[in-house]
Amino acid sequence: MLARSPEKVRMDGIAVVSGNVWAKEGVDNIRATLKILGKQIPVRMGAQMPLVHTVQMSEREGHLEFAGAFAMPPPPYERRIETSTEGLLTAIERANGELTILAIGPLTDLAQILLRRPFLGTRIKQIVIMGGNIRVPGNSTKAAEFNFWFDPEAASVVLNSSIRKKVLFSLDICNKAPVTKAVFDRVVATKTPITDLYRESFGNDYPGFLKDPKALGYLWDELAAAYLIDPSFVTKSETMYLDVDTEFGPKYGSTIVVDRPRVRGATPVEVMLDLDLDRVLGLYERLLKQ
Fold it and tell me: With 187 labelled, which of 16, 91, 212, 288 sits at a CA distance of 20 to 30 A?
């Protein structure tokens, strides 16, 4: 969506951390997609493990709706000349306060930078995050949304940072953006290399429309991306201070609403709560079929 909206967004780079899959597989996936799109955008591999959370910890957490990379054997560590933290740090320093970060995975890389240089938060114009759950259940555990659950400590660092503007697409709004078989059919009716990839992924993997026509998916990362292209689809939001539960237990990774900042200089978060579904689906479908 972003790569096909150059009039709205200039993509300076893509940083890939472990989350749904391990970082190495994520890098390979991104590069393959960019090749299909005919786009040359720098891709850097970032953190392979969360700040604290481990596979062994997740195994003690009981039933998980989704464990992401933790359900797969980790690949051998691969050292790269330039990691995504180094690339992101360079981008922040060069942007003169005009950098927007779209964070649609765990926040490990950015947290590592802010832990070392917390003052750099003020040098970031805005961050748009997909993650967390305010008033709805989680989708990894009953208490926590996956991106925040995978690295709760990193999410806490970023939410308590001095970044000037923080925008959050939590499960609260994502749950209001279902993707049905009808949407899937309209997309794949247009034959392109991208829609062929979409058909394979959404048809046979999650949510599996070709196996179950009554299946239901949701726009998650897509909503956060769409906000950078057409923010007018959001119809309701609320500003609040947030943190994440980092005490290992049943609520590990859950999002906490607090009445005041827990860290000096922390800025509030604009939490998106409702949307014009037809408008954002129209944008989604148009950019997929382009």
Answer: 16
